Amino acid sequence: MTKIPFKGTFPQPNCKPETIHMDLCDPIPPESISGKKYFLQILNGFSHFVWIFFLTNKSECKYYIKNHINRVEKQTNSQVSNLISDNGSEFKNTDLQNFFKSKRINHLTSAPYTPVQNTFAKRGNQTTVNKSRFLLLNSGLDLTYWEEAENTAVYFENLTPHKSLKFETPFSKWFNKKHP
């Protein structure tokens, strides 16, 4: 059975907090040095700025999502309108759905088993994982340091110019200033 190409589109953001994409990475063996097994990556559709949160279990996901949305809305004095994710239970639970409804956030999900519909987040995760593996391999550090490597990879991503941003960095686009 071949997969049918996804030809649909999700809303294109016009301002900073309008659209966010997110994905939870599958459990990473071995546990990190601090006992984490997962990471939640949140990408801003407008600036391509990336946030990463490390979790011990999937149930922590809703806490980080709510906290992130509240913080971003407060920082920008603007509302998140669209949240794009896959159909994972960590995103489709009653608690989060009620939160999205109370905030008037349109939760858009990809169809099951079609990662191409959430390409922005999936590709973002893959890019981060590849960079962190490279860092670990070249540093000679033990695999239990994957959390630190992921964090460093995201730091680099936020300071790397993007062709789709006319070679601005996600940092400068998000914060409206040159990177540190």
Automatic annotation (TrEMBL):
This is Integrase catalytic domain-containing protein. One of its GO terms (molecular function) is hydrolase activity. PROSITE patterns: INTEGRASE. Residues 7-178 form the Integrase catalytic domain. GO terms for biological process: DNA integration; DNA recombination; transposition. GO terms for cellular component: nucleus. PANTHER family: TRANSPOSASE, PUTATIVE-RELATED, TRANSPOSON TY4-P GAG-POL POLYPROTEIN. Keywords: DNA integration, DNA recombination, DNA-directed DNA polymerase, Endonuclease, Hydrolase, Magnesium, Metal-binding, Nuclease, Nucleotidyltransferase, RNA-binding, RNA-directed DNA polymerase, Transferase, Transposition. It catalyses: DNA(n) + a 2'-deoxyribonucleoside 5'-triphosphate = DNA(n+1) + diphosphate. InterPro entries: Integrase_cat-core, Retrotran_Ty1/copia-like, RNaseH-like_sf, RNaseH_sf.
